[in-house]
Amino acid sequence: MFDFKGYGHFLIDGTIMTVTVAIVSMAGAVLLGLLGASAKLSKNRVARELGRAYTTIIRGVPDLVLLLLMFYGGTVFVQWLACLSGNPGQADINAFVTGSIVLSFIFGAYATEAFRGAFLAVPKGQMEAAKACGMSRWLAFRRIELPQVWRFALPSLGNVWLVLLKGTAIISVVNLEELTRKAQLMNGPLKMPFSIYFVAALIYLGLTALSEIALREASKRASAGVPTA
Known about the structure:
mainly alpha, MetI-like fold
């Protein structure tokens, strides 16, 4: 039923690419989120303003516009660098790299707010007690603050992951052959838009359902030993 006259493997390949892009982008978003939250909570005014500008700009510009700007703007920049080096000619940037970077920057802004709230939720007295016990700032962060930050941030980060997973579809506009792009390519020769996109939608639904199960388990592990009200 889902063989689609021998084109069914397109959907499998596209699903693998979608998951790969989502994982790489989420890793980048978490890193940027931690950096952004640290900047917004910093005592340094410049760092706070940079963190605020990052989240404001990224959340205020449509995802598709950012993707097109970086993809085509990046291509122009690479060509300019090639001309400066004395090697003029056609230069292209990798769609996978561009898409992953753009998604990381976009969802890193949302992860920033998730981590900022999580850092603020950790009682300050615990870090003061750790300092009084002779712990270094890094040791106290690693053993006391970070585990609690993960627990507080996990629900919001889970939502970021679910939106990011579906958001990978926008990379199809730069011809990265993820699930949506593969569905478009299949529809060319088959002329079965409803059937193809319906199956693609089911795949996205299945990925998000599996993700929700994994997130619930991760939340249980992160909250192990924490008394419930």
